[in-house]
Amino acid sequence: MTESQQDQVLAQWMAEEAVVRAHIQAQTGLATREQIQGRSGLEVMQAMLAGDLPPPPIAETLDFALISVAHGEAVFQGKPLRRHYNPLGTVHGGWFATLLDSALGCAVHTTMPVGRAYTTLEFKVNLVRALTDKVPLVRAVGKVVHSGRQVATAEASLVGHDGRLYAHASTTCLVFDLPDQT
Predict the structure, then answer these.
(1) Taking the model in full, what pTM does it have?
(2) CA-CA distance, 68 to 20, in Å (whole number)?
(3) Distance CA 169, CA 141 (A)
(4) Quick one: pLDDT band at residue 172, thresholds 50, 70, 90?
(5) Which residue, among 157, 125, 118, has the nearest Cα to 141 in the 3D structure?
């Protein structure tokens, strides 16, 4: 990828994030059961992007945002900062893991029908390249591999605007019925 192409991708990513941030709620929080009742997982994720539901606090804490969702897919964008560094002077593996876990989990979430939910059973991360604040933005793209009645699996990649792979991950989730709240 040429430097000009990298600049175009970075500009596009920044513009997409600006659009998202203009629509989402400024205050982070948690959606109530009443707010999500009767919505599919995809509808819940779309409501966050539309500003109808608050983004979760972890996104503010670790400087990342949900950028887009579709059935079986979720894209998060993060800005690696010095405050995310480990003692070795690079971004801590936990930051990679959290961004990837968010993309994986939300991709699975988009496949949940009304009344169904999931929880992570297993999560594996492969860090393939160090990351510093010299990389302005990275994207975690999560895609569902399988979504069944009891188990869902997904894979995600963490890439820079230059197309370089920084990490990849996979998850296995347990799928279940939400308990009645009567």
Answers:
(1) 0.95
(2) 8
(3) 10
(4) very high
(5) 157
CA distance 144 to 122: 14
C-alpha distances (whole Å) from 28 to each of 21, 25, 77, 123, 146 are 12, 7, 17, 25, 30
Q: What is the pLDDT of residue 181?
A: 62
E-assigned strands of 110-164?
116-127, 138-147, 151-160
The H or E element containing residue 5 is helix 3-23
Task: Find the distance separating the first CA and the last CA of the chain, reported in whole Å.
Answer: 56
pLDDT band at 43 (very low <50, low <70, confident <90, very high): very high
Judged on CB neighbours under 10 Å (0-12, 13-18, 19+), 102 is buried
At residue 26 the predicted structure's pLDDT band, cuts being 50, 70 and 90, is confident
What is the predicted pLDDT for the residue at 1? Answer: 86
* Strand blocks (E) in 13-90: 64-70, 73-78
Residue 182 clears pLDDT 60, i.e. is over it: no
Residue 169: its H or E element:
strand 165-177
At a CB cut-off of 8 Å and minimum separation 6, what does 177 contact? 115, 116, 117
